[in-house]
Amino acid sequence: MNYKIKTTLYLIILLFATKSDIYAQKSNQVPKDIPEFTFYTVEKDAAFTRNNLANNGKNIVFLFFDPGCSHCQQEARLLGKNYNKLKNINLYFVAMQEKNLINAFIAMYAGELKGKKNVVVLHDKNYEFIGKFKPTRYPATFVFGADKKLKAYWDGDKSEQDMINTINK
């Protein structure tokens, strides 16, 4: 089956699942600790696991996005625009779509973040993120402390200042 068709079907299933009562209480669904995972770096297609996360005493932030999502595009722009206020975090962009779409998204909406040593772009080519992190919609932002314990989670829009404050807390 074509990759785009698989991704589209997977997203449709996700949308229906998020409407169910099972996912209505997202605070009970989101993991309290960073789960085990295997994603792949977009740049080198190298396996990237929980053990590869930065261990520098700073918050670990995952932004789960879809390149075609306008809310994701807006959040990526805000993160790029406010990079100077976000230097003391480890930021991981994660997407399931094809690498060329992920690269185009980063170039267009988060170009200021490209090449920053505390920013890593990851490809979830095995579709693990949704099952392990339990997001309910795009974008989904997870803020974990250096101890890998959940500090904050939100999906959808958040004001610029609230986003910066939450990521840095």
Automatic annotation (TrEMBL):
<feature type="domain" description="Thioredoxin">
    <location>
        <begin position="28"/>
        <end position="169"/>
    </location>
</feature>
<dbReference type="InterPro" id="IPR000866">
    <property type="entry name" value="AhpC/TSA"/>
</dbReference>
<dbReference type="GO" id="GO:0016209">
    <property type="term" value="F:antioxidant activity"/>
</dbReference>
<dbReference type="InterPro" id="IPR013766">
    <property type="entry name" value="Thioredoxin_domain"/>
</dbReference>
<protein>
    <submittedName>
        <fullName>AhpC/TSA family protein</fullName>
    </submittedName>
</protein>
<dbReference type="Pfam" id="PF00578">
    <property type="entry name" value="AhpC-TSA"/>
</dbReference>
<dbReference type="InterPro" id="IPR036249">
    <property type="entry name" value="Thioredoxin-like_sf"/>
</dbReference>
<dbReference type="GO" id="GO:0016491">
    <property type="term" value="F:oxidoreductase activity"/>
</dbReference>
